[in-house]
Specification:
The protein is an alpha/beta fold and 613 residues long. 64% of the residues lie in helices and 10% in strands. A hairpin with a 2-residue loop joins strand 9 and strand 10. Helix 2 runs parallel beside helix 5. The chain is elongated and about 120 Å long.
Length: 613
Amino acid sequence: MRRTTHYTPPSATRAEWNTLRTLAPYLWEYRWRVGAALACLVLAKLANVGVPLVLKEIIDALTTERALVAVPALLLVAYGILRMCTTLFTELREIVFAKVEHRAVRRIALQVFRHLHALALRFHLERQTGGVSRDIERGTRAVTNLLGYALYNILPTATEIALVAAVLLAKYEVWFTVITVATLAGYIAYTVAITEWRTKFRRCMNEEDSRASARAIDSLLNYETVKYFGNEEHEARRYDENLQRYESAAVKSQTSLSTLNIGQAAIIAVGVTAVMWRATAGVIAGTMTLGDLVLVNAFLIQLYIPLNFLGVVYREIKQALADMERMFRLLAENAEIEDGPDARPLVVDSGAVRFEHVDFHYDPARRILFGVSFEVPPGKTVAVVGASGAGKSTLARLLFRFYDVTGGSILVNGQDLREVTQKSLRAAIGIVPQDTVLFNDTIYYNIAYGRPEAAREEVIEAARAAHIHDFIMSLPDKYESTVGERGLKLSGGEKQRVAIARALLKSPRILIFDEATSALDSKSEKAIQAELRRIAENRTTLVIAHRLSTIVEADQILVLDHGRIVERGTHRELLERGGAYAQMWALQQREEEEREREETAAPAPATLAAGVR
C-alpha cells in the first residue's frame, strides 16, 4: 500500500526557489503577454526618466537671456507627452498582465482543489479543515501579491535605478552616481536585514491565525456538542489562547516596523543631503545650471519614493513565498491511492464482488482485518454484522478503494480493484452511509448529486422511492429548501432518506447499505426496507447492519468479530447454530419489543418541516 510521504521542510532560500519554479509554468503559458507587459514597463520608465530631463531643459531655456517663446512651448508639449506616456504605458502594462495574473491564480487554486479531492481518506481524516482552507486562501492571494509586487514595484524600481544611474554617470561627475548607488545599497541592505529579523514575527502571526481559524471552525461545526456539555467558555478560552499568541506576535511585528521605517528615513536623508550638497556646489562653481539642480533633485525623488515601500514590498514578497510554499506543500502530498499506469476502466457485467484473504491495517501496530474471504454473487445480497469496531465499515471503504488492502485482493467481475481506474470503480458502486453529511444547498441539489445530469422528473421519482417526497412537498420552498450546514436542518431520518434517494438516482450495479436505516423509527424503517429490497433486486448488494431484523432475507450473513469472519450462513442457519449471531438476535428482539412498546405509548412527534427554510 502506498504511504503518504512526510514533508521535510527545505532551507528557506531553497524553498523560495522551489516555490518560484513551481509558479513559473503557470506564467510561461502566457509568455507573450508577460513579454508585452515588460516592454510596457520599460517604455513607462523611459518616459518617467525623460520627464526630469525635459524639465531641466525648460528651466535652462527660461533662465537664458535669449529665452524664446517657441523653445519652452515645444519643451512643455514634450513634457506633457512624457507625463502622459508614463501613465499610458503603466496602465497598458496592467491591462496586458491582468489575464496572466488572474488566470495563474485560477489554475493554481483549481489544481490544489482537485489534488485535495485526489488525496486518500487518511489525509482528510487527519487534516484540519479550517487550517487547510486558510492555507489555500492565503496561498492564492500570495500569487496575486507576488506577481503584483514583482511587476509593479521591484522591476519598475530596478529599471528606473539603472536608467537614473546611467544618466547621472553620463552627464555629471562620478560622485553623484557613487553617492546614489551607495545610498541605495545601504538602504536595501538595512531593509533586508531588518525585514529578515521581522519575518519570524509575521510567520508566527500566520501560524497562530491558522490555528485560531481551525479551532474556531472545528468548534462551530460541533456547535451542538458544545451546547450539550455547556462548554462555551471552555471553547472561548481555547480560541483566546491562539488570539493571545497572535496578538503578541502582531505587537512585535508593528514595533519592529517602526524601527525599520526610522532607519530607512535616516539613510535616505543622508543620501539626499549629500547629493544636493554636490549639486549646490556645482551650481555655485558654474559647472552646473539650475536645471541640473532640479534634474538631480527630481531623480532622487523619483527613486526614493518607491524605495520607501521597499521594506513593505520585501516583507510581503517573503511572506507571499512562504504562503505559496504552504499551499504548494498540499500539492506535494502523496495521493497514496493512485491509478496504475496500465489501469483500465472497470467492466461491470454481473457485478460479482469477491474478497480474497484480505488483510488490512491503518496502522501496522493495529490490524483491522485478518484474512477475510467471502463472495457476493451477482444479483445477491450479503450482509455483514458484528460489534462496533469489528471492521464492518472498513469493508465498504476498501471496496470503494479509499484504501488499498495490505494483503490479499478484492475483485469485481474478476478484476482486481488496483488494476482498474478509480473513477470507473466508484461509478459502479452506490452507497447509503451510516452518517449522512449533506451539502449546504437545496434538497434538490443534494438528491441530484447522485447523478447531476439527471432530469428533474428522475430526481423527484428517486425522492418518491425513498419516501421523502411528501415531506419535501410540505416545506414552504419544497425542493428548493436549504438543508443547512452538513444538513443540520434535517433530522437524522430525513437525511438518510435523502441519501437513499441520491443512491437510487445513481442507479449503480453494486449497492452498499452501511447501516442505512439506523436513524429511522420502526415504522419508517419497515417502509424503506421494503423499498430497499425492491431496488436491491438484480443488483449485487453488500449490507452492513446493526439491526439484525433488517437483514433476515439476505442470501448470506457474515458475522465479523475483531476483523475475522466467525460465522456465515443464512438467517435460519445461523439461528439453528446457536452461536454469536443467535445471541445477538435474541438480545435485539428483546430491545425491539421494548422500543415498540415505548413508541406505541408515546405521543406522535411534531413535524420537523418548520425547521427547514
